[in-house]
Specification:
Layout lengths: L1 E5 L2 H18 L4 E4 L6 H12 L9 E4 L1 E3 L10 H8 L11 E2 L8 H15 L4 E4 L21 E4 L2 H7 L12 E4 L2 H6 L2 E6 L5 H9 L17 E6 L8
Parallel strand pairs: 1-10, 2-3, 2-6, 3-5, 6-9, 9-10
Antiparallel strand pairs: 4-8, 7-8
The chain binds 6-O-phosphono-beta-D-fructofuranose.
The site of 6-O-phosphono-beta-D-fructofuranose has 12 residues, from loops.
GO cellular component, one term: cytoplasm
GO molecular function: glucosamine-6-phosphate deaminase activity; identical protein binding
EC number: 3.5.99.6
């Protein structure tokens, strides 16, 4: 595991973007696993800057998003499809037909999950999986549980997650109670994992996830088993790391 801590958000964003852009420069057909939430916004901004400067093209790349809410219209401003369009897809040349996000409005969600896993398998291994971290240690929307699920599945969001994500909605009652998420098995199969965490409120969970026991109670702790994990932290999130 390679943990880097940054004093400046700008440097953190640049480093995150350099990893993504560098991969696609050397492997234009790269398969990217993408995340949403507040954490990666600055990194995507920097990726867009690099694209606009002609440093990289995503024309041959493929992406798979980690998760999507159940029951939000794809056009709803807080759907993860809207988020991805707003922060990344509308500004780069990644073909829309290869920018996959699970469909949280599918009439049969189990079938949609199976289809999503088939598409990931057909694309080959995910080369780089970008991750944020939930306050409860979730990755994607894999919430703490007695057992974690390998593939894409429907998940009931934890109360902490509903509370954390209420900031994106008018109130907590508007936050969808369920989501589709890639499973931990798929995440761990990625060739490289890039975990990004910001903020003092995540210092404790960062410490538990990266140095504590490996347990399904802290899904991110399973990342300790990954052979190629890079972690980018801002100073506050890295406060408890020696
Ligand atoms: O970056 P945030 O908004 O703190 O969210 C943490 C994580 O939880 C999620 O919202 C759930 O997948 C992720 O998108 C994010 O990485």
């Amino acid at each position: 595991m390679n943990v880097l801590t940054f004093d400046s958000n700008e440097k953190l964003n640049e480093t995150g973007a350099n990893i993504i852009v560098g991969l696609v420069q050397t492997n234009p057909r790269a398969v990217l696993g993408l995340a949403t939430g507040g954490t990666p916004v600055g990194v995507y901004e920097q990726v867009v800057n690099d694209f606009k400067q002609g440093l990289v093209s995503f024309k041959q790349a493929t992406s798979f998003n980690l998760d999507e809410y159940v029951g939000l219209d794809a056009g709803h401003p807080e759907s993860y499809r809207s988020y991805m369009k707003h922060h990344l897809f509308d500004h780069i040349d990644l073909p829309a037909e290869r920018a996959y996000i699970p469909n949280g409005n599918a009439s049969n969600l189990e079938e949609e999950c199976a289809r999503y896993d088939e598409r990931i398998a057909a694309a080959g291994q995910i080369d780089l999986q970008l991750l944020g971290l939930g306050h409860n240690g979730h990755i994607g929307f894999n919430e703490p549980a007695h057992a974690l699920i390998r593939g894409t599945h429907v998940v009931d969001l934890a109360q902490e997650t509903l509370q954390a994500n209420a900031r994106f909605f008018n109130n907590i009652d508007e936050v969808p109670k369920q989501a589709l998420t890639m499973g931990v098995g798929t995440i761990l199969k990625a060739k490289m994992i890039l975990l990004i965490v910001r903020g003092a409120d995540k210092a404790e969970i960062v410490h538990r996830a990266l140095t504590g026991p490996i347990t399904t109670d802290v899904p991110a702790s399973l990342l300790q088993t990954h052979p190629h994990l890079v972690v980018l932290l801002d100073r506050e999130a890295g406060r408890l790391m020696a």
